[in-house]
Design goal:
alpha+beta
Length: 92
């Protein structure tokens, strides 16, 4: 599957790289985009759930890295609080 990495900057300035096993994240995010934390979390969960489902359909097992990305985003949101998340880049 064509994996992607989404680099984001949290409201407190810390950066995080998020793994997706699918290009579907490109339907939800683009470089330079700024989103409130809650919206970023919701979009990430939706995109990564679809990405994980694609792995399940193609290979017959769930993508543990997509699930780990969802958990890391939730932890990041709890740690970094309110404000906006900036999508810095999406890379292969």
């Amino acid at each position: 599957m064509p994996e992607r990495y989404v680099s984001v900057r949290w409201p407190d300035g810390q950066s995080q790289e998020i793994y997706s096993p699918s290009t579907v994240v490109e339907d939800y995010f683009h470089a330079g985009q700024t989103l409130p934390v809650a919206e970023f979390v919701a979009r990430s969960r939706a995109a990564l759930t679809i990405a994980g489902d694609r792995v399940q359909a193609a290979y017959g097992f769930p993508c543990s890295r997509a699930a780990a990305s969802i958990a890391a985003i939730a932890a990041g949101a709890a740690e970094h609080g309110q404000g906006d998340v900036t999508v810095e880049r999406i890379t292969a």
